[in-house]
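Task 17 of the worksheet. Students: predict the tertiary structure of the chain below and write it out as structure tokens. Keep your answer in the requested format; marks are given for formatting as well as content.
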Amino acid sequence: MSSLLTTWTTSLHNVASAEIDGVARVYGPRRWWGGPLDVEGLALGSARVAATAVSELTGRTMDITAERVAASFASINHLKVNGRRPERFAPMSGFHSTADGWIRLHANYPHHAKAYKDALGVTTDRAFAAQLATSRAKDIEAYIIAAGGVAAAMRSHQEWLTTPMAGASTSGPWINFMNAPTRHSATASIWRPPDDHSDAPLRDLRVLDFTRVIAGPSASRLLAALGADVLRVDSPNNPELLDQYIDTGFCKRSAELNLNEPAGLAKVRELLEECHVVLLGYRTGSLDKFGLTPEMLTDAFPTLKIVRFNAWGWSGPWHRTRGFDSIVQAATGIADIYRNTDGSPGKLPVQALDHATGMGVVAAVAMLLATEHLSWAQMSLARTAHELMCLPVTQRLEAALDVPLRQFQTSPYGSLEHVPPPLLLDGEGVEYAQPPVAYGSSPALWKD
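Model answer:
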């Protein structure tokens, strides 16, 4: 990998604005969302790293535009399914006031919603709200986390920096490349970029996608748009939220496998035998018993390249704790910085931590494929939040951007209005060639 990419994967400082020949160019305005943090710099910078890494891997010219990056980072906001807007958050999700502040909950998944009431020993929404109103935010946070739920007390950024979680999750580079200690040294990938100039520069790249929600699925969505054969695998016992799946499902295939059953685990092993890249986005430790760790995978499959990420980093007291973009915003001080005029917690204009981490995953995949001596890379949403906090905010005129809308008239879910990927390939906009397949409908096989 080039020294420039090594620098850019360490920090995104000035990546969005740097004028350098021979790397992905950035077209369009520099500011459009506005606000107290440089969210545009995070979006453009992360997308530029991804574009440059794919360009170095494939020898093709990759660029980005502000219009496409902004639309891609807000893709679910622009999605329409048969004219219907997606359902974004469940009723219990969001900020709730407590006796001493605020707590952010994420109850979109039913098992997480159940954990909230179990944690407090209540059975109704009214009793739950009453318990929150008379309790300390950090006490509720601890109860819910212990019960397997997802929550974060709203902290100021300075308060976050004093926690042991911050010290663990903000250290090291934005993308951390590693070579796992195995019986075998890291080996070059057997995949090679096609030598033609088709619109599929990642053709025949086989990606096994064990990710959910937004960060990982948005990364594999872009890999698939560039021609990779992406097979997403989910458990039949814990289905993905449908609108979320549709938004990130373009060009990919979707299979359900129960890894707790011998047949399901055997099928995964068969897939790994002919796989090039594995994406791991589940909570730390949750896939260990299935042998799906970087150490185990590279030991068994030396040519395999792995990218893993989580919410809070890979050490510290929360490294095995569940988290989402909105939860990380609350804990790290972003929600405090973006407070509304009435004093209530605010939020970023888009779920930029998820999408920027997704762009980092794409960059990591490309860089791993281009090297022999590295086996895997790891990231976290909290580390991406730290990167955002460190970007200097410049006062620039905010521009209004057009939304580049596209439409599939037919799909398993009806008509789909959507936005395209953030990249240009050899000067032409990359498009999604196929709508999402029906969830769980694909055979657990690689394409011929």
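Marker's comment: The longest strand covers residues 229-234. The two ends are 30 Å apart (CA to CA).
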